Amino acid sequence: MWSQSFLASSPQFSSPPKLSLFSPSSSSSSSSSYSSHQKIHKRILCFTQNPSSKTEINLSKRHLNLSILTLFFNGFFLLDKAKSIEELQRYTDSNNGFTLLIPSSYTKVEKAGANALFEEPNNGSNNIGVVVSPVRIKSLDQFGTPQFVADKLINAEKRKESTKEAEVVSVGERPGLGQQVYEFEYKIDSTRGGIKRVFSAAFVSSNKLYLLNVVHSDKPENPLDSSTRMLLEQVLHSFDALPLT
Description:
Elements: H1 3-8, H2 30-48, H3 51-86, E1 88-93, E2 98-103, E3 107-109, E4 116-120, E5 123-134, H4 146-158, E6 163-175, E7 180-190, E8 194-205, E9 208-217, H5 226-238, E10 240-241
Antiparallel strand pairs: 1-2, 2-10, 3-4, 4-5, 5-9, 6-7, 7-8, 8-9
């Protein structure tokens, strides 16, 4: 989408109170013994009916319920994350020297100007494309900082007739195989397909500029969900050059 533009420009619980039972003296009468037993019995009742003990039990149950809920939701998060990892497969282009992860449901299609293009079945506007072009620079920082490149990118998008609005969401960089990889995220509102979320990555290797665009619909009535976003971010972070042979 932007390759040409780029080139152009345990809760704590307190211990329960100890209950001490004292045996009556051997010299006491049977009535005295009976009276002592009554007192002991009352003490036991007082202990079991102590409101603070009930409070501790109630608190214990509350903490237990909260712990169960936490494990429940965390379990769903981990399952969701595991699912997203399982749905990815590696694609490697040995001729052009790059590799990345692709959702297993996406299909490869041919398109002029793209070295590799993958589309979501029945929704070609959700796609992943890679363009490789020769350049004179040996590293991307010779062209500019990530922010500088992002500004150039978004300005080029705004100049398109089909673009109604465009904004940069995030800019970053990460180490790649022998080179720095710039990463960008931005949103575009276009007359062609409405609002889209775009994740882009770029790096230079062997005097070639490698550009990745991950495009997905992000309309208000059907926004990009967290699991899909996680999947697309893994695709973005997986883009890299192949080792030189």
